[in-house]
Amino acid sequence: MNATDLQKIKQRYNIVGNCDKLNRALDVAMQVAPTDLSVLIIGESGVGKEIIPRIIHDNSPRKREKYFAINCGSIPEGTIDSELFGHEKGSFTGAVGESEGYFGVANKGTIFLDEVGELPLATQARLLRVLETGEYIRVGGQKIMKTDVRIVAATNVNMRKAVSEGRFREDLYYRLNTIPIQMPPLRDRAEDILLLFRLFAMQMAEKYNLPKITLADDAKQIMLKYKWPGNVRQLKNITEQMSVLSKEREISAQVLLGFIPQDQESTQLTTLGKQTSGQHSYESERDLLYKILYELRGNVSNLRRELNELKEKFNLNGEAKSIDGTPRSLEQADTHAIVPAIIPTRQQQTVDDEDRMPVVQDAVAEEISEPEKKAEQESLNLENQYRHMLEKALEKNGGNRRKAAQELGISERTLFRRIKQYGLDV
To answer: What is the per-residue pLDDT across 47-83, written as a single tens digit (0 to 9) for each?
Structure first.
């Protein structure tokens, strides 16, 4: 194809650039357009692969027929066979009628399968049969259907690697790859980067009635040295961002660096699936959760045991034994005699310190003989002990409530409530 015809193609499809690799791709597309050979377009994401099938269709004998561009990666695996090859009525839930599918509707036309490497293996087998014989069977049907379509496919994955890993059929790969077209990444089109920038800047200025942005010399050098992992699509996005957000119309290197990601990995998605060495696993978090649950289970068991011991001190009719052994009702039970039985040990104390007070010793309620009752009642009066401890802590810390609360192991709010309760003058 001579330079004049090449320039007409670029003008018609708004293609900017003079890169030899780009010109070669356009030349191959024009040569293969009059034939029915399958074409596989290979290139990174964002290089403009979608232009090539449009050029092929518009310059082929099928140009007056239908053209469908299908993104194979965006169709769910469970419905992609129905979308491509159609289905019979009642073949699955929701199939209220018949569907011809893309291959039925696009008969005599062209189908562009973008991201063809994402097709499930079962769908790949159906597609291979269409390429070889032009025949297919609808989902849920038995009748063999015929179609005459031109297939142009595109992918941004390493197809040879996908074949070796068993993710793509080798026979289908060679059927699609009859005519390969390689689209160059933007980093290999250094002479086209500034041309594309000027095109996108002009489009934004005309579309939104904005002053056109330009690049300073130092910014141009950065544009040429940047790797552009997102290719032409990334360049267009950054140009549009600067056109709208930058207050300066002449973009300096400093301003440009504010819009270009400095870490290439920031433009990539996280890889899911098999984890390699160095990647984060959540084993430590799981172990920690298991440990917490195990300890919580133990605390619940301890509380249940304490509750059962407490219940044993009461009759089923709600009567409690007094210190002298005389049964009394629960309302008449001496709280000072039973409180020590429900105070947990230091290891069993919960995290909530609202009602937590330092435990001087582990006390268990038990019957006390008559001669010792008066003395023991005096020592078991926890209220007096708590008040005495509060007074000592406040006196030791010069009335500083925060320090006193820390020493007692309670919160300041709890300390303030106790001071108010006991009427202490601080």
So the answer is: 999 999 999 999 999 999 999 999 999 999 888 999 9
First-to-last C-alpha distance (Å) of the chain: 99
- 393-397 — which CB contacts under 8 Å span 24+ positions? 394/419, 394/424, 394/426
Strands 250-251 and 214-215 turn out to be: parallel
Region label for 423, one of left (φ > 0), alpha (ψ between -120 and 50) or beta (otherwise):
left
Residues 6+ apart with CB under 8 A from 392: none
- Cβ(43)–Cβ(183) under 8 Å? yes
What pTM value is reported for the model?
Answer: 0.60
Buried (b) or exposed (e) across 111-146, using 16+ Cβ within 10 A? Answer: bbbbbbbbbeeebbebbbebbeeeebbbbbbeeebe
pLDDT tens, position by position, 360-386: 444 444 444 454 445 445 445 666 777
Q: How far apart are CA 212 and CA 204, in angstroms?
A: 8
Domains in the chain: ranges and CATH: 3-184 (3.40.50.300), 187-264 (1.10.8.60), 288-380 (no CATH), 381-426 (1.10.10)
**Structure token pair of residue 124:** 């790949």
**Cα–Cα dist 31/10, whole Å:** 15
- Structural tokens at position 108: 């005599």
